[in-house]
Amino acid sequence: MSEDKAASPEEMKRKFKEALDRKNAKSRDGESHLDGDSAVHATNAPQMKREFRRKSG
User: Where is this region: Disordered (predicted)?
Assistant: First the structure.
């Protein structure tokens, strides 16, 4: 590689940081759900110990 085409380490770090910032900005566009409220509020099934039976036959 010649000197005019080789990028300095600082320039490479800057380019990668800019690309990472662009990537992170895209992922932050979604809904944040800061209230922490779940769609599931109660379960309908009673809590029972499961009974396993051996197959006959």
Answer: 1-57
